[in-house]
Amino acid sequence: MTTGSANPGFARGRRLRSTPALRRLTAQTRVAPADLVLPVFVKQDIAEPVPIGSMPGVVQHSLDSLRKAAHEAAEAGIGGLMLFGIPAEKDAVGSQADAADGIVNVALQQLRADLGDELVLMADLCLCEYTDHGHCGVVTPAGVVDNDPTLDRYAAVAIAQAQAGAHLVAPSGMMDGQVAAIRAGLDSAAFTEVPILAYAAKYASGFYGPFREAAEGAPQFGDRSTYQMDPPNADEALREVAQDLAEGADAVMVKPALPYLDIVRRVADAVQVPVSAYQVSGEYAMVEAAAANGWVDRERAILETLVAIRRAGAGQVLTYWAVEAARWLARG
């Protein structure tokens, strides 16, 4: 005997799920192409793109292939690009990061000339890809990353990136005081309008492995646990975010995304600035590997992860699927 239909208090959640149109109409969280940012790698002195074995579908771009990819990204309607560079030569202080002919700075000049303001051109601001030791800053003879001299390098890199045409700089090195140093450097060089997107809560994660192949920036000794955040710590993330905002950050980021959705939520609830989350290389590689083995529906899994990150509170999502996902979303 069924009596549910006679009971006015009987809840039927299925009523709003019966058709795709109803589900679209009542969806609480949405992902739009403009919410997505594509991280890209550009390598000096290569003529053709180089595939990244651990990240199927992702490449180290040449300057020419990057320009083509940027046009495709603009046509797909995504929000922006985040540029990472791999120089031909590395040294102890990462000289190519702020060299006028450094690979990212040349790429920024070309992309800005090609696209103007059609996409937000973001420059990752760190030294790990540019140093011969693979750490994110200047290293002492004892092998310790020296925080304060590194800040001077970051300020110089920020100025070079702004001069090259970056709309936004994104410091990712997790040095104490980095945002204040960069803001002071930009302001002193008359780049007061260039915003800072701080990698404010960046964890010492096990999900960065494929990125280190892509960016050729793995540490040659030790690891980054002394300056990136310890995964068990949540309250510390709020302190790091608050500090970066006090130093002049215009927006903040949580990295990685999926293993730290609780952090994304807490940061989004705590601040009144844009919050980004970076769906990192290990997250990408896991889904691609599962899909390649037929264990998950690739498109559904990718879109579900993006919805999860947005649902947690991120306004913008950095993802290697940005262009492909944007095309799916436009398809409806």
Automatic annotation (TrEMBL):
GO terms for molecular function: porphobilinogen synthase activity; zinc ion binding. Mg(2+) binds at E240. It is an enzyme of class 4 (lyase). One of its GO terms (biological process) is protoporphyrinogen IX biosynthetic process. 5-aminolevulinate 2 binds at S281, Y320. Zn(2+) binds at C126, C128, C136. NCBIfam families: PRK09283.1. Belongs to the ALAD family. This is Delta-aminolevulinic acid dehydratase. The lineage of its organism: Bacteria, Bacillati, Actinomycetota, Actinomycetes, Geodermatophilales.
